[in-house]
Structures are given as structure tokens and as C-alpha cells.
Amino acid sequence: MSERLVVIGGTAAGLSAASKAKRSYPDLAVTVFEKTGYTSYGSCGLPYFIGGIIQNPGDLVTLTPEALRTERGIETFIRHEALSIDRNAKTVTVKNLEDQTIRLVSYDYLVIATGAYPVMPSIPGIDSTGVFHLRSVEDGIAFKAKAGVSKEALIIGGGLIGLEVAEQLSLKGLSVTVLEAAPRILPHLADELAADVTAEMEKHGVAIRCSAQVTEVLRENGEAKGVRTGDGEIYRADCILVSVGVRPNSSLAADAGIETGFLDGIAVDRYMKTSDPSVWACGDCVEMRNLITGEPVYVPAGTTANKQGRIAGSNIAGENAEFKGVLGSQVTKLFGLTVASAGLTEDQARKAGFAPVSSMITKSDRASYYPGSRDAKLRLTFDENTGVLLAAQGAGSESIAGRINVLVAAITAGMTVMQLEELDLVYAPPVAPVYDPILIAASQGIKLVKPKQ
Description:
This protein is an alpha/beta fold.
């Protein structure tokens, strides 16, 4: 009888694990259980479904349960929730959410890929009709329907997802206000770059209100009508998105006695194995390691989930793959501005024992005389004593994403700003200047390096 792999979670991490394990170990019987009604969907595309750029929610789905069965040999069940894990018996109790039936499923190997859950503030009225979060396709469908009949919208939270939704709603003609409790939006960015994003949003009609702690959702007959902030201000809207972060959905694992770690993320080793040798975990439900410091962090991302899933699947199949860690690499485009970042903030670097300094430059993203050239801002953070690169951030045209990707490779390789300045980067007037912004930023950074005597 074939060995059996059971995967709890049928999106990025879970299906990457299932697919890789099945490819490398064809005789393995693989079964996936997904709580929602969709598998293999791109949740990062939900803002653009809400905005109408993506017309059909099915377009966000890469592989349906039918395709997984016929094309990959993976038995996949949607609207099935894993209720508990018995590690001694090696069984999972699964509930069919359609007919409420319950069954026991045995496994030889188990992958937990339960993702994350949205943080919802404990404030009066948060359960009102018209208050939404955004994690699943179903969430996107419900929010889009409400936004389609609303004139005003409030976004609670000034992170990437909140700002992307704000952009899309504004393009649809809604009056949109973003309420951020912190002194500025996108707190992982340098002040100047966060200010550039704020200016871009406000230029296109999105109101940004920082230091605005929402203390209550105002409602009538159970329906949201606005919010009140700590300073007594009232903002009116009947369509409210709460986007203040997520936390690891690790309770299923914890209840089974599997160890958890940072922010209650499931503790895994570099092979994605948990404290139980028959159980792997991957994706937004696990704690991660920072690639620079080695310290535990929690930076959920679709790219990370896919990589971790592939590594878990490889190791279940008897291979020897390792997940090295994360840099928190991020990018988004808001109206005409692309902003990207990777690595440590200066505060994080100091806490890790570095002596961080930063250089910021503004340089044309291609030959300045070429039509369509735009200024690109690039900020490098590095250790003052060694010049080792610790972080990179930038804003400008879409080309900034490629430059940050180059710098991600440099950070991963442990390069210094001195080595960066020597890179043989491409040049052609339509696409890149003779002195790339990376080289200019590195050159400026070298002036700040002061090796210890």
C-alpha cells in the first residue's frame, strides 16, 4: 500500500508541497484539504479583482481541484476543514463544510499549511455589517459587492494591502480615506520614501490620516456607518476594510502539541520539519528566520510560502532541501509610483549589533535625455565598519523593482558597498543610464564607511 501524504491547506504553500512531493515521489498518495471554496489562488491579486482589473474571481485560480486530480494526481477537497490532529494515531479529523459530515483521515506524512488570520481590533462595532477583511477569494467577492454600491470607503491600516485596495477603490470613483494608527504609513520604509507614497496617494484623491487610532465603528441597525478615532474625529463610510496585519494560523498545530515559536508561528527547522518528525509546516503559519541575523521573524509572503512548500515537499520525498531565510522583500505599485524594499531597518540593524548608516540618492532611471526617463530614489543601508549591505529601498518607475532585486542578491551574498560599486551593470539609453542608480548609491555609501582601526 502506498504511503500517504495529507496536506492541510490548498493554496500557495500547501499545493507547492503537495505538487513537489508527488513529482519527486510518484507512488505517494497525496490528499489536500482546503477550508475555502478555492484552491491555488493568488490572494495578492485580490485588490485588482476588487478594482475590476481582474474581472472573474476564477482568473485568480491557477489550478482547480479537478485540474489537480487529473493533471497532478493530487486528490483535493474544497470546503473541508481540519478540526484536529491525533499525532499518536497519525490521523486528521476533517469536516465537510457542505454536508457537515466528519471523517478520520490517516497519514504517513502531514503538511500543515493553514496560512494566517487577519488581525481584527477589539473595538465596539467591529462586527458590523459592512466591515470586511481580505484574505480569501470569498472575502474579495463580498467586499467588491459592497464597494460596488458605496460612495465612500474607509481603509483601516496603511500597509501594502490597504493602500493597494485604496488605490483601486479610488480608481473606481469612491471617496477613500486611509486611517493609520502610526505616525506614518508603511513604517518599514524610510521617512522620505513613505512621504513620497503619501504624496502620490493624495495627488490622486486618497486621503491619508496618520496617528489616527480607530476606537469605534459607528453603526445603525447593525450596519457600519463610519468610525470614530481616539482624538474624537468621525469619518463616515458604509464600506470599511480592516487591514492591520495578520498572525500565524497555528492553533491546529498547537492544539496537537506541536511546538510554536515567534508570534505563535509553528516552529520549523531549515527543512520545514516541525517538532514532530512526521509533520512539516510551511507558509504564513510558520515562524521564519531572518537571512541576515538568523533571528526568528514573521514576514508572511506568497513568494516565501511557495518556496517553503517546495522545500517541504522535497524533503518528504527523501531529498535534502533547505530554506535559508527571508529578507522581507516587498514591492507594490500605487498609481504611478513603484516602491520596493528588502532587508533590515536601521533600528533592526542596531538591535542585531550592526552600526548602520544609509545613503540616499536620486538619479534618472535611464539616460536623462531619453524620453520617459524618471527620477529613481534609492537608499542603501550598510554597516559603517565593514560596508556590508543590510538593506535597500527605492521608489520611482517600475524599474525600481529590478534594481531592488539586484540588491536582494547582493545582500544574500554578503556583498559590501565597495563591491557593489564595481558591478558591471547594463547600459542602454532607453532602459538604464551609464551610471546606474545602484552604482551611484554605492559610491555615495563608500564615503560613509569608517573601518575600525
